[in-house]
Amino acid sequence: MIERLTQRLTRRRGGAAAAGAFDRRLLAPMMLGSVLNPVNSSIISVSLVPIGAAFGAPPSQTAWLVSALYLATAIGQPVVGRLIDLYGPRRLFLAGTTLTGIAGLIGLLAPNLGALIAARVVLGFGTCAGYPASMYLIRSEARRTGKDSPAGVLATLAIANQTVAILGPPLGGLLIGLGGWRSTFAVNLPLAAAGLLLGALRLPKASHEERAAAKEVRLDLAGMALFGAMLVSLLLFLMEPRADRWFLPVLMAVAAAGFAVRELRVAEPFIDLRVFGGNVPLLLTYARALLVSVVSYVFLYGYTQWLQDGRGLTASQAGLAQLPMFLTGIAVSTVTGRRAAVRGKLLVGAWGRSWAAPCCFCSSRTARYGC
After folding, report:
1. How far is Cα 62 from Cα 309, in angstroms, rounded to an integer?
2. What pLDDT does 204 receive?
3. Can you give the residue ranges of every domain in the chain?
4. pTM of the model as a whole
């Protein structure tokens, strides 16, 4: 389905790697690799309540299943992106899909919540390779052909990532209805197998020049450690914000200051903070993305658990209740993804959220003012 959609959008003819044309053999591994992280981010939303019931864990503990993946991704994706620039996409893509399969197996056999959290950490590191690999392939194909990559490729990547994330809850509900919550982890086994096969057959090997250049580059291990310490401290405090945990914000501030000093001084930083200096449009873009992500994921995880705990819906029913959102997301992404203008997309998103918030408020039986 992904390849058919991509071929329709790119409208290419002839051989897969014809001179001057984007190599269409790369599209399937690109799309599969890039959607592994968003689908695993959202599919867990309908599993939190059943997992908590199975292990007798409160929401404050099952929330680590969400946080573990994001923490691993936040640390792993910049690292993997850097390694892909050095060694090429093939080895990192194959290593990532292997970790994804291992995570699925751990989740399938996990005897307790701790093992599930470990599986989500491995899953975060495994799925963070797909998107950087896709970006690398787009750049390398542009250099090979001497042309910008087809707009259809970028549009398909955007559509795939946005719609697959929305597909997660209905898919998770379906899987739980068929095989229980463990099936939301087991689904990564066939996905990883497909990724390994496609990556091995279609992704290019690193050139001699890339291998030679990689030997001369050093990774900013200190920057990675400070970045990780900053995120872990922040996450630990937000999970249980109490006065007796005052040392966590202090530790976060110290790690953040050390990270900033380190990244501004080192020749090859883990994250180049210099690009933010005076770049107001970039700062606004990141701020907007942060706000949109907060709203989206608060709704995704909070609303799904409320449907199960507050309304008494099963995991399958809770996933099905979000199917209209999935269908709307596909339609909107398909239409707006083909347009370069940003303002219209922002207006559509803001308009949708302005209606969604009061509708969700009015749907609650415990709301002070009913509708």
Report:
1. 14
2. 87
3. 23-219+282-340, 220-269
4. 0.80
Our CA dihedral for 158, 162, 164, 168, rounded to 10 degrees, sits at 160
Q: Provide the sign of the torsion angle of the four alpha carbons 258, 259, 260, 266, taken in this order.
A: positive
**Can you read off the two tokens belonging to residue 147?**
């042309």
Q: Which of 100-114, 150-164, 243-257, 333-347 has the lowest mean pLDDT?
A: 333-347
Please work out, in degrees rounded to the nearest 5, the angle formed at the alpha carbon of residue 309 by the alpha carbons of 306 and 310: 65
pLDDT for 22-51, tens place per residue?
A: 788 888 899 899 889 988 988 998 999 999
Tokens of 132: 């950087």
Pick 23-219+282-340's CATH classification: 1.20.1250.20, 1.10.150.120, 3.40.50.150, 3.40.50.11540. 1.20.1250.20
SS3 track for 297-340: HHHHHHHHHHHHHCCCCCHHHHHHHCHHHHHHHHHHHHHHCCCC
